[in-house]
Each structure stands twice: as C-alpha cells, then as structure tokens.
Amino acid sequence: MNYYRLSIFYKRDVFFSFDGNSDKKELENGVFFGKSNPIKYTVDKIDKYLLNYDILPTIGAPLVSTKFKTEFERLLGNDCEFLPATIVSSENGIIENSFYVLNLLKVIECIDYSRSEVRPLIKNVPNSPIKIIVLYLNKENLQNVHICRMQESKSIIIVDETFVDLCNKIGINGIGFIKEGNQQQPDFFE
Predict the structure, then answer these.
(1) Which of 145, 141, 162 is nearest to 77 (CA)?
(2) What is this structure's pTM?
(3) Phi and psi at residue 73, in whole multiples of 5°?
(4) Residue 4: which H helix or E strand, with range?
(5) Please, what sign has the CA dihedral across residues 1, 6, 21, 120?
(6) Low-confidence stretches of the chain (pLDDT beneath 70)
C-alpha cells in the first residue's frame, strides 16, 4: 500500500484560522469530542470560491464540505469525526455554516528515520518542531489506516491509496497528494 502527504490548496492565498485556544490541542492530539456546538474559524472574507471547494487550507484541523463528509464517513469510520463548523469573515461578519471540522482521531508515528532526512526547525532548542527535508513513511505503523495525523509533526496528514482513489472518483476539489521523497521539491501523485 502506498501512502501520501495530504496537500490542500485554494484559489487565493488564504488560511482559514481556528478561532479558539481551548480545543486546538485536543484537535491536534486526536481527542474525541462527540459534541455538536460549532467550532469557529475566521477568514479575511467569504468569497465566491468557497462553496466550490471540498477541503479548505486551515490553521488548525481541516475544514471539509458536506460532500466530503457524506462520501468519507463510511470509509474513515473510527479514524475521525466530523464536527460542525462556523466560518466567520473578519471583513464583514458574514457567516458560512456548511463546512465540518475533520477531527482526526489517529495520531501515529509515521517517519521512517532510517530513510528520511529530518532536522530541528530551531537549532539548539530541545524538542523543537521538525523540518522534514526528505520523507519516507514507516508503512508497518500505517497498516489499515486510511487517514491520520503525523505524531512527529501534527500539521501533516497522511492518507492511503484507498483515500486517494475515492477523492479522484468523486472529484474532491482543493486536495493534492505528495509522494514520499523530497519534500522541498515535492512530487505530486496524479
């Protein structure tokens, strides 16, 4: 089975920012919420492109469309939960409620350190975040996992071929897949 690093893109250079401190760590660490209160994200403006995307670039857990949620709930099962989200424009207060927070419940050590090149992001700082130059995955740790958050760098999401195939089949917009290897000049899976 092949695995890929998830890449998310949008029509313009923007990030939808998680707007809350208390839940951020729980979302990064795979904590099950089971709640229905919307989680707030902010963006500079709600634009005409928003509803054309099925996954949005975020600071925080990813935001996904109703289409994504509907198509992936069965495949992902206990690997994630979909939490209601509210996106608020900081420009004029316009609100969009049709997206969900993709809360990944599996956080797995993924890096094959014998083949990867990893450096501390901040030199001489113990437990500094890491910079991944070359990434190879430990596939033994990823068996039977369709999607997970990388333990070593929690902003990175890893997906398997089954996930990629379903994205391609149903036409998920806003998503790409980076192959193992050089992460500075990535090779995207077509």
Answers:
(1) 145
(2) 0.92
(3) -55, -45
(4) strand 3-8
(5) positive
(6) 21-22, 36
Q: Are 38 and 86 in contact (CB under 8 A)?
A: yes
At residue 47, the pLDDT reads 92
Identify the CA nearest to 81 among candidates 72, 90, 89. 72
Task: Tell me how far apart the alpha carbons of residues 51 and 179 are, in angstroms, rounded to a whole number.
Answer: 28
Token code pair at residue 97: 């409620």
> Where exactly are the structural domains of the chain?
11-105, 108-182
Q: Cβ atoms within 10 A of the Cβ of 7, count?
A: 16
Strand partners, 103: 81
> How do 175-178 and 181-182 pair as beta strands?
unpaired
Model confidence pLDDT, tens digit, residues 18-39: 887 557 788 888 888 887 689 9
